[in-house]
Write a structure and sequence with these properties.
single chain; about 150 residues; six-stranded mixed beta sheet; 10 strands; elongated; CUB_dom; CUB domain-containing protein; disulfide bond
Length: about 150
């Protein structure tokens, strides 16, 4: 049984809020984009996307267009990506400014959030999410981060 659930956007107290959940299907692309895309959003935004790949797959998210305010520590407008799939985005990577980025999930799920403040200069985001076959020989691991517990110093 295939379940695809998508919930839309709402405007509450001057903030655009959206929540989307998508089950990714092999060889299909799911687009993630800011409200009003291809135009810039011009008000506060709080949107979240949760994408889940089928068993044996990981999620790849390629954001080809990130056009956001470039503030110190991405404190105003930011795109948050959790490659661990954490819906609370506690350990998510923050992105802002003008750039592109690609992230691959550690498990089957990835969480993405676009957050902007009320006094935002506006911006836009375009990403593509696709499932790709999990490569068990190239998983993110502590060894790739430089920690090698089998080597004693």
């Amino acid at each position: 049984m295939l379940l695809v659930l998508t919930v839309g956007c709402a405007l509450t107290a001057g903030v655009i809020r959206c929540e989307y959940r998508k089950y990714l299907i092999p060889e299909q692309t799911y687009y993630i984009y800011s409200p009003g895309y291809p135009h810039n959003f011009t008000s506060a935004v709080q949107c979240r996307w949760i994408v889940t790949s089928p068993p044996g797959f990981v999620a790849r998210v390629n954001c080809s267009q990130i056009v956001l305010d470039d503030s110190p520590s991405c404190s105003t407008d930011r795109l948050l990506i959790s490659n661990q799939g954490d819906p609370l985005l506690m350990m998510a990577n923050p992105y802002c400014g003008r750039r592109s980025v690609t992230e691959v999930s550690i498990g089957r799920r990835m969480a993405i959030s676009l957050i902007s403040t009320r006094n935002t200069p506006g911006g836009r985001v375009l990403c593509e999410a696709t499932p790709e076959k999990e490569n068990i020989f190239h998983r993110s691991s502590l060894a790739e981060l430089g920690f090698q517990p089998w080597i004693q110093s």
